[in-house]
Amino acid sequence: MREIALVFGWLLSAGAAFGQPQRFDLVVYGGTAAGVLTAVSAARQGLSVALLEPGRHLGGMVTGGLSATDHGRKEVVGGYSREVYVRCGKHYGREIEWYPEPHVAERVLNEMIREAGTVTIFLQHRLAEKSGVRKRGSEIVAIRMEDGALFQGTVFADATYEGDLMAQASVSFTWGRESSAEYGESLAGVRPKDRNHQFDFPVSARDAQGNLLPEVQAEPRGQIGSGDRRVQAYNFRMIFTKEAGNKLPFPRPAAYDPQRFELLARFLAAFVKEKGRPPRMNEILLPRQIANGKWDFNNRGPFSTDYIGRTYNYPNAGYARRETIRNDHVEYTKGLFYFLANDPRVPKETQEEIRQFGIAKDEFTDNENWPYQLYVREARRMVGGFVMTQRDIQTELTKPDVIGMGSYNSDSHNVQRFVTSEGYAQNEGNMEVPVTPYQIPYRILLPKRGEATNLLVPVCFSASHVTYSTLRMEPVYMLIGQATGLAAKMAIEKKCAVQDVDTAALTAKLREQGAVMEWKPAGSGDAR
C-alpha cells in the first residue's frame, strides 16, 4: 500500500505541475494523522478532497516513530481517532492496538483514505515558501506549490505541525510561552525547578578552564512566570528491537565528537557516586514496548533524546533552515546512542542493557531506517477569536460547541538548560500536571473572522502554550481532524463562513459518528 501511494502521488505531481489549476471542495495541506482524518472525514461526507503532503509519507508522528500512543484516558478517545487503533488491532488479531508498529499505522491510514474514495493524494507537494497563498478579502482562493501546481478549494485546512499555510494566509499566530500574566495562567512562562527530567544532584556545567560544556546555554534562565520565544525540546522517537535478525547497530555519526556528551558523562558518574549503583537504562531513556516485540524510545532524565534549546528558530524558519535543524537533531541522536553503547565512561551494566537493542531494520526502509518525522511538539499556535487557556482544562471543563475531549496531562518538555548561580547545570520548562477530562471547543479551529473565513486549523489551533501542552497528542489531533472534515462539509453545504457553522448540529453529527463528548468517573455511568 505504501508503494502504491508513493507512485500515485508522483503521477499526480507530474499532472498538477504542468496542467491547469485543480479544483476541490476541500484542500488539506499537511499529511499528518490529523490531515489524513480531516480528509477521510470530509470524503465520507461526499466532498472531493486534495491531501497535500510535503514529504513522501502520510501520518506524521503516528507513522513516524511515536508508537507508544499518548492516549490519556482511553475511554474518551472516540470516533475516527479510535477507529485507527481498532483497525490496527485487527491487523494483530485483537480488539484494539494502541501501540502499533509505524508501518502498520501507515498501512491503516492509507487504507482509510483509499476506502473513503474521494481523496486525491499529492505527495512531495510543499507550499511555495513566500508566495503560496492567494486570497480575496478574507477568503483563500488558491494555494501554490513549489513546483507551480495550483490548488483551488472552497474550504482549506492547515494540518501541518508548523502552520505554514495559516501563516501565509496572514492569520494571527504566536510561538513560545506566554507570561503568567497574559491569560492569568499559573503554569505559564518560565517555570521553577521541576522534579522530573532534572539534575537531581550537582553536576558542574563548566570545564576546568571555566568554559561552558556543550549543550549548556550561556543565557540566564529568566524570571519565573515571564514569557519568552523559547520552544520546548523536540526529538526523534526511535524504534528499536532486541531481535537479532532484525536489528542494526547504532551508527557512528560522521562528525562524532564524544566531548559533546561530557555533561552526560558527568551526570552518569555523579549518579553512581550518589546512588551507589549505575543507572538503569529506563532512568536515562524511556523505552516503551510496542507491538511485535519492538520498542519506542523517548526522552527521560536530565540529558537524553530531547535536544534541549535547539528548537527556538524552528517555528518561523524557512525550509532550508528547518532542514538544517532537523539534520542537527539526527546527528545529535545518532551521537547520543553511539556514546551510550560505546563510550567507556558509561557504566558497564548500563551499557550492556542498552546494547541489547538496535535499530529496527524493517521500519522506515526507504529512509535508512530513520524515522520520517522530527517530533515537532509545538511550533506556531494560531491566535483566533477564542484562545483556549489553563482555565479551560482545569475549571471550565464544558463547552457549548464541543467536538471531543482531551485528557492527557499538561505536558511540556524542557525548554532550556542553563547554569545556576552555583555553576551547576539545570533544566527548565518541564511541566507535568494532571487534568480532568475536558471538552474541546470548535472555536479553537477558527481564525479571526476578518483574517480568514474558509480556513480551519486542526493542529496549530488557538491555544496558549499551557493548554497546547495537553491538546498536542496525536489521538486528539485526529479527533479534531474528524471535526474539521465534517465542519468543512457543513460550511460548503450552507455556503457559509467556517465561523458560522451550526455547532449544535456539528456536535450532534460527531456523536452519531462515535465521538465522545462527556466523561464520568469510574462507577458513575458510561463515558457517553
Description:
With 528 residues, this protein is α+β, with helices and mostly antiparallel strands. It is built from 13 helices and 20 strands. Strands 1, 2, 3, 4, 5, 6 and 20 form a 7-stranded mixed beta sheet that branches. It has a 5-stranded antiparallel beta sheet with strand order 9-12-8-11-10, with no helix packed on it. The protein is globular and about 70 Å long. The two termini are 35 Å apart.
Keyphrases for this structure?
alpha+beta, 5-stranded antiparallel beta sheet, disordered N terminus, globular, 528 residues, 7-stranded mixed beta sheet, 13 helices
What secondary-structure arrangement, pairings included, does this model have?
Blueprint lengths: L1 H17 L3 E8 L3 H12 L4 E5 L25 H13 L10 H15 L2 E5 L9 E4 L2 E6 L5 E9 L5 H5 L4 E2 L5 H4 L54 E4 L5 E2 L13 H14 L9 E5 L4 E6 L19 H24 L5 H7 L3 E3 L20 E2 L8 H4 L7 E5 L3 E3 L3 E4 L5 E4 L2 E3 L4 E4 L13 E2 L8 H7 L2 H21 L8 H10 L16
Parallel strand pairs: 1-2, 1-6, 2-3, 6-20
Antiparallel strand pairs: 4-5, 5-6, 7-13, 8-11, 8-12, 9-12, 10-11, 14-19, 15-18, 16-17
Helix pairs in contact: 2-4, 2-12, 3-4, 3-12
Using only CA atoms, what is the Rg?
23 Å
What portion of residues belong to β-strands? 15-25%
Note the quaternary state here: single chain
Please provide the count of β strands.
Answer: 20
CA-based shape: globular
Termini gap? 35 Å
Instruction: State the low-pLDDT regions, or none.
Output: 1-18
Helix/strand-derived class? alpha+beta
Helix run count: 13
Helix percentage: 25-40%
**Integer average pLDDT:** 95
The major pleated sheet works out as: 7 strands, mixed
